[in-house]
Amino acid sequence: MKKIGRNFFSLLWTGVRRNYDNLDDNIAKHLGETAADSPVEIHLSKMFSDVFKRHTKDQADRLFIVGTKSTTPSLQKVSSRPVKPWFFSRVFLVLALSFVMLILLLFLFKSNKAIPGLIFIGSLAVPFSLLMMFFEINVYQNISVLQVLTTFLMGGILSLLVTMTFYMMLPIRSEISIESALIVGITEELAKCIVIIIFINLYKLNYIFNGVLIGAAIGAGFSVFESSGYVSEYGLVTIFTRSFQAIGTHTIWAAIIGGAIILGKKRKQPFTLNDFFTKPRFFIFFLITICLHTFWDWDIPHTGLSVSLLQELIDVIIGWFLIFVMIDAGLREVKTLQGQQIVIQRSKKRLVKKR
């Protein structure tokens, strides 16, 4: 039986590994303006291949000078190659090491002065690192670091203000039933969605990667300030759990919504209230994020820690799959706007790119 089980798992994994890159593309190709049978050159399995490569200081410096009139490339010069972010991993490494040193300061030297820094860095590490990843992925390079940080701070706080305004009008119970989890999911995702729309319209953004980045900035800000606030309610141990859970929560959900907003609006036109209710490509993704949030918060009765961890794992997998769909759709958009035919390359196939 064990041998049969191993063979079955091996067969299943082989099928998933061979078809995963195609699965997200099959979804993404129906979101853009290309023909339904147009392939796209993207290898998500290699997306993080540059993380472990050596990079120069000049390469890192170039990432931070984008978004100005003199450094924003023309559309024809925008890179349509598969995205391979790497700098975000260095940001995470610095923040993670800072977190560890603060832990040592607290527990070895009994210094309570380390607690505020521990709360801040612990809340910041994962969301901000994810934000930097989406900043690298924005191949249009039309959003500056200043705009990202402004959106991160102001957008994150504004989304919390909108959330608390909604909470004052809705019946939120202390226990996490499916009903309460659903109300929380609708409230917080709607609040973030409203703020993301405000910033996308304010910056007059029109590309999927732009929407994903602005959404990630607002979601990361929301995550950082919310996690910091939970410490006063549940104690310092909250940071040791929420800091790493952030890999699949607010930053990811808001990035999905940001991309969906671009998909739902007319190009070079602001997103309107009418778009909110009449554009299926937006509304489906918005409903999915509400479902992901609800599922994450739902405390299923008569279950233990293992079920809760399984819920979170499922949530993370689905959330990141949708992020990959957005990345795929974003690359398709670049190719479409540049007037190129999109070609997919497989290890066992060699296809010629046409213009």
TrEMBL record:
UniProt KW keywords: Hydrolase, Membrane, Metalloprotease, Protease, Transmembrane, Transmembrane helix
Listed transmembrane segments: 87-109, 115-134, 146-169, 181-200, 207-225, 245-264, 276-296, 308-327
GO terms for MF: metallopeptidase activity
Superkingdom: Bacteria
Protein's name in the database: PrsW family intramembrane metalloprotease
